[in-house]
Amino acid sequence: MLGSAEIYRDPWLVLTKDDVIRPDGRPGTHTVTRFKDGVSVLPLDAEGFVFLTEEFHYAQGRRGIEVISGGVEAGEDFLSAAARELREEVGIVASRWMPLGVVDPLTSQAIAPISLFLAEGLSFVEASPDGTETIRRLRVPFAEAVEMVMRSEITHSGSCVLILKAARLLIGRPGRQ
What is the pTM for the complete model shown? Predict the structure, then answer.
């Protein structure tokens, strides 16, 4: 890298322009967006249902269905962020957590890692979403959530990866198909 300049910053992202020498030896630029680290949570109840959210996403211009997702605050660990988002967005508290890895949804354009969690042992409290969010909580059979991914009814990349990883993990668990 020959140099880097910050173009834009807000609470959610930093945009930089990097001057580089390309692999072919010629000068070039890369514009990189660095998002806050994120978390995505798939809450699974004892009856085999998962809880998803439906909300309007401005950038997409439409409502979308996805798992519970949000940003990690400064000084917060991933599990704490996941538990906070689950409680705030849909009013769920989980007693058992399983980390299911990390996904990088935009590898050529952005740094935006999302840590994935399966949450079980659910109890319910009052939700308190951000003032920027209008969230509808959905309770869906887990097998239907997998089919929603396959039919592209769920398109959020972190949600798709998390649901399919959970499906792989849960195959063979007693009482699961």
Answer: 0.90
